[in-house]
Amino acid sequence: QLRLVESGGGLVQPGGSLxxxxxxxxxxxxxxxxxxxxxxxxxxxxxxSCISRTADTNYADSVNGRFTISRDNAKNTVYLxxxxxxxxxxxxxxxNSAPSPTQAWGQGTLVTVSS
Length: 115
Known about the structure:
The chain is an all-beta fold. The protein is 0% helix and 50% strand. The chain contains no helices and 10 strands.
């Protein structure tokens, strides 16, 4: 079982940037592909992006070209660089194993995009 701790959220204006971090600990930390997911108020949780052990990446159409996922296996951390943020990106962001989130969910980190 992995322990996942998200951080880096906050309030940002439209067009701004944030970098989220996901600290991963537990059995075979670097074995898993890790994904970012988000849940906006009143909506279902959705996939955002994922990265394999070998750094192959995938993005949802809604964030492709604006978000960049990366991982630092030495630090057991996965990052999500979010640029050109839009109000529709407002959500609680979570990380988990990918493509299927099988681990216990962390507390998430809130991203609010508003002027």
